[in-house]
Amino acid sequence: MLSTKNIKSDALSGLVVFLVALPLCLGIALGSKVDPISGIIAGVIGGLVIGFISNSQVSVSGPAAGLIAIVVSSVETLGTFQIFLLAVVLAGVIQLLLGVLKLGSLANFIPNSVIEGMLAGIGITIFLKQLPHAVGYDKDFEGDESFMQTDGENTFSEILKALDYVSIGAITVCLISLLILILWDKYKLQNKVKFLPGALVAVIISIVLSLLFAGTSFEISKEHLVKLPTSFTEIKSGLSSPDFSQFLNVDMWIVAFTIAIVASIETLLCVEAADKLDHEKRYTNPNLELKAQGIGNIISGLVGGLPMTSVVVRTSANVNAGAKTKLSTIIHGLLLLVCVLAIPTVLNLIPYATLAAVLLLIGYKLASPKLFTKFFSHGWNQFLPFIITVIGVVTIDLLKGVLLGLFAAIFFILRENLRKAYVFNKGEYEDGDQVVIHLAQEVSFLNKASIKESLLAIPENTKVVINAKETEYIDYDVLEIIEDFVEHQSIDKNIEVKLKGIDENFKLAKSEKEFNNFKLKHKK
């Protein structure tokens, strides 16, 4: 149920997200090589439709940088943007079905180290990508998150190249905007100056400075200002509708499934991240989120918009601005709609440098040094998946970075399970000592090699206790190793074996059916 209890804070947050989302919607449309209005449409629907249906209180949806490559290649493959829009509509239908089938719960299996690594990686990417915009170099479109750029540069080489195109006016605007934002946040001026967030103050002052700089050496070129269509004719010309005559086009269906899968994965990852960012730690139903995204993409495709996902950049801006409920998301969508229609000329006076300042702070907060210190203090099992995810997101892209981190996390989980399947410190025992091996609650085939090695390392003339009192399950392969040790190796090495929690006179079952009937003693 939509609450207006926190309407003041939500309205301010919605305004800040609107200022962040505006250039991103335009930039992603530009990067996708489609009409800018398609990006705005997706942003409006992400706020008004998905924001209303979703039960995430802080997540913000809109056109996603992670889908740019798919949009570009798909439009080229299908031939027309209208056929692509049909694929977007059907992708939404597929997402809706995924939500109905409750497949969104798969997101719960992503480790915290990977989610936090994704957030930090996106933070670093945002920060690095905004540096060229901050100095007045806008060759790469706003909202690009890929390491390899469409202009032939990469994230790092773009920064170096930007140094050759420095605009004193842009740098001045960015630094003043940063100062305003930092002071506004530090001294909590938003609480003293009602309904005036720091981002809006920075934008207003940047517009004034840009106008004052005109005709001087500080002048900010038009290429460094927001570019919106300024007439209804331009807006209308950007509207498209799906070509339903291509419903049986196989290539179109392939695109639809691709969009549905990639958009769903990105959304589930971002929603998990949103729950981490939420100060009140509320839980988002992933299945409802998939349904909301599906309905949003159906509507977006029908009216000529780009496909959407939940987006971390806008979500983190929302949280940092003090959002309490999803009303802020809806307000941002409403502002996009009204302002683009009513005051595009005013919006076109905003320098990218001031928006870069807002995003630089967001990036820094997402990749705070404290986050790296925290995971380092948790040990290598947590830090390595975290840092691998960070590096992958920054140097490749979000999905591949998360996959790398996930593989690393799985490796350490398996490694930890191998180590914790039993407790045995070889090297501490000598002939004649009593050796105690404590088996864990579950002992799987993955522990076969290490348990076998440990049993072989037990010295001669030793007493051995294999304690399985706390064990719920022992894999068939492991039981076979224990039986071989009891009946053969222990006799050869004069080792006295005592079994706890396992029938001391057991004979290993020789068939799976008999094995399934095997009972640990403490369960009898």
TrEMBL record:
Keywords: Membrane, Transmembrane, Transmembrane helix. GO terms for cellular component: membrane. Residues 435-524 form the STAS domain. InterPro entries: SLC26A/SulP_dom, SLC26A/SulP_fam, STAS_dom. It comes from the Bacteria. The chain crosses the membrane at residues 37-53, 58-75, 81-101, 113-131, 165-184, 196-218, 252-274, 334-363, 383-414. One of its GO terms (biological process) is transmembrane transport. It is a multi-pass membrane protein. It is found in: Membrane. PANTHER family: SULFATE TRANSPORTER. This is Sulfate permease, MFS superfamily.
